[in-house]
Amino acid sequence: MGTCFDIQRFSIHDGPGIRTTVFLKGCPLACPWCHNPESQARSVELRIVESRCIACGSCGPACPEGLAGGPTLPDPTSCLQCGACAEACPTGARQQVGRSYTVQEVLDAVDRDRPFYEGAGGGVTFSGGEPLMQAPFLLACLAEARRRDLHTAVDTSGFASRETMLDVAALTDLFLYDLKVLDPRRHRQLTGVPLAPILRNLETLDDAGARIWLRVPVVPGYTDDRANLEALGTFAAHLRHTRRLHLLPFHRLGGDKYSRLGRHDGLEHVQPPSAAAVDAQADFLRSFGLDVHIGG
Fold first, then answer.
1. Tens-digit pLDDT profile for residues 195-248
2. Which of 248, 132, 125 has the alpha carbon at shortest distance from 197?
3. pTM tops 0.90
């Protein structure tokens, strides 16, 4: 069994072709620009969409702990995260984020769109969070996807053991490999984890001939300075096989998710980069001999 918070059909930004993206819960990184904050915790969570609450009072009596209902999150130290209040909510104002899935359930959901994959070179992408945090479940899903002859992609931060990375590589057709900040001190400061294992794993995959698309978030004031871009270009250029790099411009689409989870969006002051700025960054990275794309 594994914990997923979404299975998104008809994705066109998570690898080649039309894909189904399976989002697994849990991530060891805590990037301040994360647009899926519901992916960070490994456990199931409750969120509230205040604009949908009609103060009907259905949620309160449904709670086995007798916690108050309404448009506010319950005390996390008392809430069982059982989802009873979400089931009782008639408007969807209360929502349980994440649930347990079997491998069969995940792959059956993915398999529904097989005609679209075959016509557009698509398949299934496992994302998160960090899917390698649920390595046994991920490996079982990849093995079943291979048995069903589905193209597989794994969207990863690369923060895992070398052994796990190689086990996953044996069942993966494409890695979407995230690089963020190439200064070790700043990387730990921003994400909470060391940079070295991420770069070592990337080199290991590249040496093994894995197919890799590098992906770099363009976050003004965090990842877009010339020193970081130069370090990214220099590192990527020394890889033996990997040349494709995607710049992912920061956006504000995940801003409301923080308040719904009772958290603060620390980047509410940051605006998306201009198209001209991203174009200039792409041209700069192309000067390192890289095949640079914007988006995807």
1. 999 999 999 999 999 999 999 999 999 999 999 999 999 999 999 999 999 999
2. 132
3. yes
DSSP character string of 174-222: EEEEE-----HHHHHHHHSS-SHHHHHHHHHHHHTT--EEEEEEE-TTT
What's residue 255's pLDDT? 73
Please indicate, yes or no, whether residues 53 and 21 belong to a single structural domain of this protein: no
* Main-chain phi, psi angles of 10, to 5 degrees: 60, 40
- 231 φψ region: left (φ > 0), alpha (ψ -120 to 50), beta (else): alpha
Tell whether 144 and 72 lie within a shared domain: no
pLDDT tens for residues 46-61?
Answer: 888 988 999 898 998 8
**Beta carbons within 10 angstroms of residue 163's beta carbon:** 9
The dihedral through the CA atoms of 225, 231, 234, 237 has a sign that is: negative
Q: Residues 236, 253: one domain?
A: yes
Go through the chain and tell me how many residues it has.
Answer: 296
Q: What is the pLDDT of residue 265?
A: 87
Cα-Cα-Cα-Cα torsion 27, 29, 35, 38, nearest 10 degrees, comes to 30
The number of folded domains in the chain is 2
Query: What is the domain range of residue 25?
Result: 2-42+99-294
